[in-house]
TrEMBL record:
Function: Catalyzes the conjugation of the 1'-hydroxyl group of D-myo-inositol-3-phosphate (also named L-myo-inositol-1-phosphate) with a lipid tail of cytidine diphosphate diacylglycerol (CDP-DAG), forming phosphatidylinositol phosphate (PIP) and CMP. PIP is a precursor of phosphatidylinositol (PI) which is an essential lipid required for cell wall formation.
Keywords: Cell membrane, Lipid biosynthesis, Lipid metabolism, Magnesium, Membrane, Metal-binding, Phospholipid biosynthesis, Phospholipid metabolism, Transferase, Transmembrane, Transmembrane helix
Cofactor: how bound: Contains a di-nuclear catalytic Mg(2+) center.
Lineage: Bacteria, Bacillati, Actinomycetota, Actinomycetes, Kitasatosporales
Entry protein name: Phosphatidylinositol phosphate synthase
Superkingdom as given in the UniProt entry: Bacteria
EC number(s) stated in the UniProt entry for this protein: 2.7.8.-
Reaction equation(s) it catalyzes: 1,2-di-(9Z-octadecenoyl)-sn-glycero-3-cytidine-5'-diphosphate + 1D-myo-inositol 3-phosphate = 1,2-di-(9Z-octadecenoyl)-sn-glycero-3-phospho-(1D-myo-inositol-3-phosphate) + CMP + H(+); a CDP-1,2-diacyl-sn-glycerol + 1D-myo-inositol 3-phosphate = a 1,2-diacyl-sn-glycero-3-phospho-(1D-myo-inositol-3-phosphate) + CMP + H(+)
């Protein structure tokens, strides 16, 4: 009798199992630094990471502090229109993404909890950044259209991340690289915000970079969301067809075995 083939197991927590410090979905710090800069800053930050370990500081603590710094930079400076200094503060705390990974590697830790915490706090940081834009355009920026665009950027970014996590949680690979994923959303938004903040120092016309960037992120996020939904629909149909074919093969095998058994009995 043919041995039934096992069905694919559902992915854990909607995310691939990965430890902090290993290759996974790009975090805010990793998104803003290319591979050569990361290698440089990794060498620079290794002694600092070792110092924190000797002081008994955990990678989780660094992750929490880094996220708190990003949230503070976004929600304190951005609503006041201080985009340059807000981006400077956010960028400084971005290095926590490199420090906590460095610490995890030095400690030799491989933790599902660390990966989960990183991913969850990434959503918090994203919400704070676009929330800062929303508060500015709803208040001092006095532009309800751009306020609505910022809200869409915030909501679509969260949904884009959810579609991948949910697709993986039901056992699908969600094998698609979207047009504007988290790394692109953050780099475009933060670079534009930092440059737009130079208007306060007398640079003319540069304040329009942020509205343009938000429109780009909004449209790109919508395209990415559609790409992921279409991909999940296709992969779901393929998985169901494969399961039906497997079930048909199993039934055929059972019928053949039953037929052979009847012939042997006669």
């Amino acid at each position: 009798m043919p041995t039934p083939r096992p069905h694919p197991r559902v992915a854990t927590m909607g995310q691939p199992v990965a430890s902090r410090g290993q290759t996974a979905t790009p975090t805010l710090g990793k998104a803003m630094l290319n591979k050569y800069a990361r290698a440089f800053f990794t060498r620079v930050l290794t002694p600092f990471a070792a110092f924190l370990i000797r002081r008994g500081v955990s990678p989780d603590t660094v992750t929490l502090i880094g996220t708190a710094g990003v949230v503070a930079g976004a929600l304190v400076f951005y609503p006041m229109g201080e985009f340059f200094w807000g981006t400077v503060v956010i960028t400084l705390f971005v290095f926590s993404d490199l420090v906590d990974g460095n610490m995890a590697r030095q400690l030799g830790r491989s933790s599902r909890w660390g990966a989960f915490l990183d991913s969850t706090l990434d959503r918090v940081a994203d919400g704070a950044i676009f929330g800062g834009f929303i508060l500015w355009y709803a208040g001092g920026g006095d532009d309800l259209v751009l306020c609505a665009v910022s809200i869409f950027c915030l909501a679509s970014g969260q949904v884009v991340s959810y579609t991948k996590a949910r697709g993986e949680s039901i056992g699908l690979p969600v094998a698609v690289n979207g047009l504007v994923e988290r790394a692109e959303r953050l780099v475009i938004s933060l670079v534009a915000a930092g440059l737009a903040g130079l208007h306060a120092f007398g640079v003319p016309g540069i304040q329009y970079l942020l509205p343009v960037a938000l429109w780009i992120v909004a449209v790109g996020s919508l395209v990415t969301l559609i790409q992921r939904v279409v991909t999940v629909r296709r992969e779901s149909a393929e998985a169901e067809q494969a399961e039906q074919a497997e079930a048909a093969q199993d039934n055929e095998g059972k019928q053949q075995n039953a037929s052979h058994g009847s012939e042997a009995a006669t």
